[in-house]
Amino acid sequence: MLTIWGRLSSINVQKVVWAAGEAGQAFERIDVGGPFGGLDTPEYRAMNPNRQIPVLRDGELTLWESNSILRYLAARYAAGVLWEEDPARRVLADRWLDWMLSELQPAMAPVLWGVVRKVAPFTDPKAISDAIGKAEALMAILEAQLADRPFLAGERFGMADIAVGCGAHRWLNMPVERIARPRVQQWYETLFARPAAQAALPLPIA
């Protein structure tokens, strides 16, 4: 059985929990990070020297970094489902994992910190407005990507939808005014209907 360390309010932990569920793998999840603490212990530092979440243990293998864990679970336990064997097809999904970490997640974070978690200085109205503007520009990219396909990498659900779907879940459920994106909304509703997604994506956003 897999072991996942990390609180479920973390978007990076959500990716891993969702992927494990889609891959049909039983797992135990241990709350650490945020209000649960536990990241500064010698035992946790030995698993992840960055003292961040999530961490995955699968037998003798211990992994950190959420996208690396997502790729591992897809390749090992969901080849042909979440994981495309053809590199030319796989990279169409793989790029969205990196886009989520480098673009969408940093853009949304100040909105979460300012509006939901109310962490100074992100509560400044201009800081929130600027962050919403950046996130909206990226959601426009998603809307365009979904114009001619049901999922981010094509006709089939895959690891790109897990990674970016966690971001859409956060964005669409934060208490802010948003530009209507009907394709993104339909895609998100399709994703959230999946049992593994419902188990990984708590509401309300915390």
CATH class of the largest domain: Mainly Alpha
Number of domains: 2
What proportion of the residues is helical, as a percent range? 40-55%
Which spans of ≥5 residues are poorly predicted at pLDDT below 50? none
Terminal CA distance reads 28 Å
How many helices? The count is 8
Average pLDDT rating: 96
Class inferred from helices and paired strands: alpha+beta
The oligomeric status of these chains comes to: single chain
Would you write up a description of this structure?
With 206 residues, the chain is α+β, with helices and mostly antiparallel strands. The chain folds into 2 domains: 2-77, Glutaredoxin, CATH 3.40.30; 87-197, Glutathione S-transferase Yfyf (Class Pi), Chain A, domain 2, CATH 1.20.1050.10. Helices cover 54% and strands 8% of the residues. The chain has helices at residues 11-22, 42-47, 66-77, 87-116, 125-145, 159-172, 182-192, 195-200, and strands at 2-5, 27-30, 55-58, 61-64. It has a 4-stranded mixed beta sheet, with helices on one face.
